[in-house]
Write the structure tokens for this entry.
Amino acid sequence: MRTGGRATGFRRWLVPGMGIKRWLGLTFAGLLLLALGVAHFLRQISGDLAPGGLAQTLVDAATLQFLPYPLRGLIVGVVGVAFVLIGAWRVILAVTRPLRADEDQPLVEVIYQKKFLARGPKVVAIGGGTGLSTLLRGMKEHTSNLTAIVTVADDGGSSGALREELGIPAVGDIRNCIAALADAEPVMSDLLGYRFPGGTKVEGAPVETEPGGLGGHAMGNLLLAALTDLEAGDFEQAVRRMNRVLAVRGQVIPASPTPITLHALTREGIVVTGQSAVARTPGIERAWIAPEGVRAASDAIAAIEAAEIIVLGPGSLFTSVLPVLLLPEIRDAVAASSAIRVYACNVATQTGETQGMDLSDHVEALLRHTTPGLVDVVLANDRIDRARGGSGPVALRWPPAVEPVPHLATDDVVDPRDPHHHEPDRLAVAILRACEREAAAVRRERVARSA
């Protein structure tokens, strides 16, 4: 196993674009020229030395005159190449070792990630909850130009308690996304998600914190709260600082630096207030946020304007995706973007907010709350037999009653071990494949609509 791993690592050094072979070649050429210069020098002075003298004897020994002529060049060449390669390898190790976060990770993998992932597409993912974290885990293996714009409407558990006590936006979804983008992701998820003992757990509900205590609070939530205080209440700067401290692959941005409250109106005319209450409510007709005119994060708008791919979801439609898009600045920036805009629908409905909704219902609700034409491509799971959990799989009824009708892309994106969620890598690959396949048609349609 070790031999195979070393062979794979060596081949990875030779992958085109790594920027290694060209510099090793230049180094070797320089040393070869230096050797030729020394050889010319020795040849010049050897003619001036007295035959049989000590100086002549030393020069003859140094130039291997006691060996046959072809063998001299072969030995010197092999030893020279070996010295160059060993020396270059050890220099690279010595220089880069302090920069490596994981000593067990091969150096070639570190360089491969930094160079190749930096060339990946500029992807902006919008939403929150488990769905957005799942997408980020898969997408970070294909690009480091990755931005997550995260809802701040959560009002339950540790996030809700910190929001009420400190007046800061919800931090739980931001914490989860930062952990998902960390290079040491499993360890970072455990650390940031660690909850201090003492909170109460009710079946089907988030952990309730102890008033005035640490019980039930997640470590990452407290870290974000502390950074906000250190930044004199500047929540955006606190999240930027946490991105830098944890050296995430990409960046996580709050949708707004202001706490947001989610409201919903049911088909029966009942008004529901708060993200936690909306999540448990079926038959939602309309959702909105308060306060009105709340400002979107400036970094979020800049990321959307620079994006090549914008992904809405996956995640809870009314409580994760829409709270971000209900911010007028973000909605308008997505609508005006030249990026390919993908809606990644959940694989299963959720008891409460999307209970009984099929694929077309999801798309119609999304566009009813935003603007027609906001979505170019809808990605849906086509392995209904694998999707279980919540109220059931999302049925593939198509097309929705909207104009223009988005392109539909289907794929097997279900996690076999957790069949009511997406599998991270399958989801990322399906999105990139759908964007590549539909990009030309989407651009033609945009040109036709603008003509």
Summary: The two ends are 60 Å apart (CA to CA). The mean pLDDT is 84.
